[in-house]
Amino acid sequence: MASLKEVRNRIVSVSSTQQITKAMKMVAAAKLRRAQDNIIQMRPYAQKLGEMLATVSSGSETGSDSPYKKARPIERVLLILVTSDRGLCGAFNTNVIKAAMAHTEANYADLARRRQVEVLAIGKKGAEGMVRRGFKVDGRFQHLFTKLSFVGVKEAAEAVMEAYASGRYDKVDLIYNEFKNVATQIIRVENYLPIADAAISGQGERTNINYTFEPEEEQIVNELIPKSLKIQLYRAVLESNASEHGARMTAMDKATENAQELLKELKLVYNRTRQAAITKEILEIVGGAEALV
Amino acid sequence: MNLEIITPDKKVFAGEATAVTFPGTEGQFQVLNNHAPLVSTLGTGDLTVEAGGAKQVFRIDGGVVEVLKNKVLVLAEAII
Fold it and tell me: Among candidates A153, A142, A123, A158, which has minimal Cα distance to A243?
């Protein structure tokens, strides 16, 4: 049996770890609330932009000739991976990487073998994970999470759009954690580029209103498409951010609980050992006294 | 008329306005009460809101505006 001192040291170290996990849980909870607020802030913009895009494109007859709509034979693929910068959030990052691997295996196995599948990582963990798996990783936008804002995400989206328009990639997919609730994240694999027709036309209900368009409808559509692409990426980043804090909260809650259980067991061992030592001492004294008589 | 200016990060302005001047991609233009339905893209520039004699200027970086039945909705990419 462990000595009294050893057990006491374990108790001290476990309870200080528990304090840390408890604090991390609180911090995650506070950050989660902010992350959720961000999503709520962004929603009306995204919704209105979608409506506007539907209105305008339903008014135009020729359809748009946006470079982001043209599908090409797939020679080169870019995967945008949204993960977190920090660990200690359960399977959050592993799930994204796993999904990326499965998605590649299922759709681009051939291209991957020829190293034609590249990765744009948003979040450090995804970058590290994919480099380890032998992918070529573009880490320019790895640190978006340190100062999360639309402007940063916009730059990343613009870089991706430019790479697509210039023919560097023929297909761009987006993989991220969607926030369902604090305990649940859903892994999403979305098509990013080329943009699907359905995403643009939508349900244009208000076609009967006679809008004045400035400039022409087609031009407006061509301007709105990149905007909605930026929003799509921003949404993914925000969802992932909220999911991360949710995942960390649950992970740290579990850790705190486990620590509590461990402490309970250790206390039991401690008390039992202490009792045994006392009993032994009494026996020794009694034994010694008997020997004297 | 009712004016709303929103960016992906936050709601910048919501309230009544008498006249709004926009930095349109095709040139500056102004919207007054009872304007006809309009959709226009915006460039980088100053968006001026006039409400009850007071003026308020927002410098926006691209966006789009929709005017419909005295409701003006501005989706700006960013406020500089």
Answer: A123
